[in-house]
Amino acid sequence: MPSMQFLVRVGPDDAPTTALRIAGHVAHRLHAGLDGVQIVPLPPAAFSVPEAVPMQMDTVQRQFTHARERDAWFAQQLESMNLNGRWHAAQGDASTVLCHMAAAYEMLILARSDEHRDTPLGYGTISRSVFGCRCPVLILPEDMTNETCGERIVVAWNGSRESTLALRGARPLLTRATHVRILDGSSDAERVDPMRPPTLHLQEWLDRHDIKATIEPFQPDGASGPAIEARARDDNADLIVMGAWGRSRLAELVLGGATRHLFGQRAFPLLVAH
């Protein structure tokens, strides 16, 4: 019986998807189980004329019935990846469903569509899910072609609550990675906020969990987001681990920030926590 269980959001058709492919790879590597969920959205009542509501609800019910009947398909996918798990179908607002379900899992895995760039303005499904979930969220570019995720990792760490949660959530991946580089911006954060609570002793935590990592002081001349992305590219990384919204989402929207920048890039998967 796996000691960890992950949840991946699956689309409405049976075509192979990035989310399921990479979720299977990560779950297999970490000896975890993998559950899947398809979420059927309800029609926006505010934009519906009364005459159309019965037809819309009939469509939703047919979609939900189809979703519930995909358990055999999902079981076949798991069997091909030598994994165990369960299939779920749900109705409603996607982020609300995901935040509710993710409370029972060690990781939530989502693909970010390039068609609707989900930058963290607070309204997109992925942004709202990260903000509301109480587990790490692995965000994958929808057109990701890499077969690996979590073998070469760059961690953006500044001692904040959010970055520490992300570090802790990534521990199973960090212990198995072939390369880990930690960009340590905590000294700069302490200078900005000298009254903040004591932060994690990073090297002691790494030693306690037998994680081999290179710790590199991180004080970029410009914005943090592009600098983190450039360092990950230099390292040929296949995952960036970071806290999301170390400051408010409004400040990120107005001022910009690492979260906003990295949510908008297409090159690297992100493992984030808030």
From TrEMBL:
InterPro entries: Universal_stress_UspA (IPR006015), UspA (IPR006016). Coiled coil: none annotated. Residues 151-272 form the UspA domain. Gene3D superfamilies: 3.40.50.12370. It comes from the Bacteria. Belongs to the universal stress protein A family. This is Universal stress protein.
